[in-house]
Amino acid sequence: MIAAQIKGIIDELPQGVQLVAVSKYHTVADIREAYNAGQRHFGENRVQELTAKQALLPTDIKWNFIGHLQTNKVKYIAPFVTLIHAVDSERLLQEIDRQAQRCGRTIDCLLQLHVAQEETKFGFSPQECLDMLAQGRWKELTHARICGLMGMATNTTDETRIRQDFHTIKQCFNQIQTEYFADSPYFSQISMGMSHDYSIALQEGTTIVRIGSKIFGA
Ligand SMILES: *Cc1c(COP(=O)(O)O)cnc(C)c1O
């Protein structure tokens, strides 16, 4: 079942688009099943759940942290995390840099954009994101690497609205890439699209889809 769902999704993804299997709330046995089907990128949104699972599962899994990350918890995932999707403040970026340096690694990060209509305290508005980049302090970071943007569309069944949100993220990505990362091929990732809206995200140029319930069930 899990294997068949993964295969079905992979078959729909264009070349170069990465599937992150969102395994939050699901068991180690479920993750193992996905792993045995060839899946390597998994996403979790709680530090404690992630570290507990990481300790029990194969070391070649690429763990993606997709939730809100508190600065005081970065240290627990810094030794092994592959990609932190939802960097929503410069302070968090600096802490990731500090902890990555302590571990002697570089940690890839995505800046989280808030474009959806829901109220949330997480994520930069496009303008806040541009302002932070314009200030330029991030250029001094040596071990946290900004590889792109992440975002969520408004939680609605209105496809036009969803498409518009993804489009805004993609436009912002293009602008930032041109202005700040034209010579940095690693700035190449857009993480958008979940179980119910990833088809639209694919049309709008996503490079990473984060899919949970469609693979593992509700
Ligand atoms: C849970 C979650 C997902 C996966 O959502 P599904 O609807 O289960 O596919 C993707 N992104 C984030 C940030 C999540 O918290």
State which percent range the strand residues make up.
15-25%
The main β sheet shows up as: 8 strands, parallel
Number of strands: 8
General shape: globular
Unreliable segments (pLDDT under 50, ≥5 consecutive)?
none
Mean pLDDT: 97
Q: Count of helical segments? A: 9
Helix content: 40-55%
Estimated structural class: alpha/beta
* Distance between the amino and carboxyl termini: 13 Å
Radius of gyration: 17 Å
Which molecules are bound besides the chains? pyridoxal-5'-phosphate
Q: Topology as H/E string?
A: HEHEHEHEHEHEHEHEH
Question: Spatial order of the strands in the main sheet?
Answer: 7-6-5-4-3-2-1-8
Explain what the structure shows.
The chain has 9 helices and 8 strands. The chain has 218 residues and is α/β, with parallel strands linked by helices. It has an 8-stranded parallel β-sheet with strand order 7-6-5-4-3-2-1-8. Helix 7 (159-180) links the parallel strand 6 (144-152) and strand 7. The longest helix has 22 residues, at 159-180. The site of pyridoxal-5'-phosphate has 13 residues, from strand 8 and helix 9. Pyridoxal-5'-phosphate binds at residues 22, 24, 45, 66-67, 194-196, 210-214.
Give a nutshell description of this structure:
This protein has helices spanning 2-12, 28-36, 47-56, 74-77, 90-103, 126-135, 159-180, 198-203, 213-216, and strands at residues 18-22, 41-44, 62-65, 83-87, 107-114, 144-152, 189-191, 208-211. With 218 residues, the chain is of the alpha/beta class.
